[in-house]
Amino acid sequence: MKLWGGRFNKEAAKILEKFNGSINFDKRMYEEDIKGSIAHSKMLSKQNIIGKEEQIKIEAGLLQILNEIEAGKFIFDIKDEDIHMAIEKRLIEIVGEVGGKLHTARSRNDQVALDIRMYLKKESVEIEKLLGRLLKGLVDIADKNKDVIMPGYTHLQRAQPILFSHHILAYYEMFKRDLERLKDSYKRLDVMPLGAGALAGTTYDIDRHFVAGELGFPEVTKNSLDTVSDRDFIIELNFITSMISMHMSRLAEEIIIWSTSEFSFVSLDDSYSTGSSIMPQKKNPDIAELIRGKTGRIFGNLMGILTVMKGLPLAYNKDTQEDKEGIFDSIDTIKISLMIFKEMLITMKVNKKNMMKGIENGFINATDVADYLAKKGLPFRDAHRIVGELVVYCEMNKKRLSELKLEEFKGFNDLFEGDVNKKISIEECVNGRKSYGGTSIESVEKQIKDAKEFLKK
Question: DSSP secondary structure string, 12-75?
Answer without folding.
Answer: PPHHHHHHH--HHHHGGGHHHHHHHHHHHHHHHHHTTSS-HHHHHHHHHHHHHHHHHHHTT-PP
